[in-house]
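Thread amino acids onto this structure.
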């Protein structure tokens, strides 16, 4: 059995895999270009997902399983994968701790005016007449309260915040005080002080959040997107901020990445930009490899209950 990696895996984790599975032949590469010459031997491909296209699949004739070392799988050629009956799993769930911590950190940074404090320190300015807020007593609406959203809500409860969630079915979610179906999203948005989107990128979520929703939100509200950039109509968000329909936006993801240098968001005081790093942590790869190892045991033993197996019809 041959496992080919186009994802650059840490040395200690490569050794861990080889020691845990001595009968598996691991072929480690830094990228797909390096891995290409061995694709024809691959039974399993470990990738970050954005380097797999139909050409790769045609060269990997033996391929039975793709492990994506990320949550996002929107770049995969689903139809070709379905036609070849290839299993796809991803690393969904490993991001909840760093992304929840990141979200709370950015909320605290906004509430405590850290941006201005940093500017004042650079300028040697002692200024006490700044505006500071508390998270306590505020309301947060989380759009897409899955593993990440639920962890965000758990941390928000420690700050005495009221939590509302919006999902497809309206099913209850732990640490969420109130839950709404996506068809009731406006009701969930109108009283929120913070609106946090953790939506994945699917055909159903493309531009799901748009001007109609921004108009419903409070003018004092802060919009945070740590999900996927394509889920938000960025033009509508820009207009909402420019027209003072929202107080601020904290954006870690964008429709085009990297965000173009001439994009107006860069110049707006009402926007905080981070470069798609909310999930990054030194624990990222170890957690993803743990999922892969458990699934590899199942694969070898011909078990079918894989962790995070993707429904190729639904795209997640």
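Threaded sequence (316 positions):
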């Amino acid at each position: 059995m041959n496992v080919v990696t186009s994802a650059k895996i840490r040395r200690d984790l490569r050794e861990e895999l080889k020691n845990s599975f001595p009968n598996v032949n691991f072929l480690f590469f830094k990228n797909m270009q390096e891995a290409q010459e061995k694709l024809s031997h691959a039974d399993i491909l470990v990738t970050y997902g954005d380097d797999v296209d139909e050409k790769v699949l045609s060269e990997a004739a033996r391929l039975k399983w793709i492990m994506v070392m990320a949550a996002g799988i929107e770049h995969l050629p689903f139809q070709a994968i379905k036609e070849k009956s290839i299993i796809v799993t991803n690393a969904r769930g490993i991001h909840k701790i760093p992304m929840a911590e990141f979200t709370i950190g950015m909320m605290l940074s906004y509430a405590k005016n850290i941006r201005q404090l940093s500017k004042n320190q650079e300028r040697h300015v002692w200024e006490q007449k700044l505006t500071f807020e508390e998270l306590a007593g505020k309301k947060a609406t989380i759009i897409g309260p899955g593993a990440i959203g639920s962890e965000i809500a758990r941390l928000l409860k420690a700050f005495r915040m009221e939590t509302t969630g919006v999902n497809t079915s309206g099913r209850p979610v732990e640490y969420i005080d109130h839950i709404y179906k996506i068809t009731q999203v406006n009701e969930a948005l109108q009283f929120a002080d913070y609106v946090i989107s953790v939506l994945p990128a699917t055909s159903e979520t493309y531009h799901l959040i748009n001007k109609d929703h921004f108009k419903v939100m409070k003018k004092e509200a802060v919009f945070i997107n740590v999900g996927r950039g394509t889920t938000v109509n960025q033009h509508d968000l820009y207009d909402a901020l420019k027209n003072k329909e929202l107080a601020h936006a904290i954006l870690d993801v964008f429709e085009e990445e990297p965000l173009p240098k001439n994009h107006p968001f860069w110049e707006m005081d009402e926007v905080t930009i981070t470069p798609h790093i909310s999930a990054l942590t030194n624990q990222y790869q170890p957690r993803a490899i743990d999922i892969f190892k458990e699934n590899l045991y199942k694969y070898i033993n011909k078990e079918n209950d894989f962790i995070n197996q993707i429904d190729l019809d639904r795209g997640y």
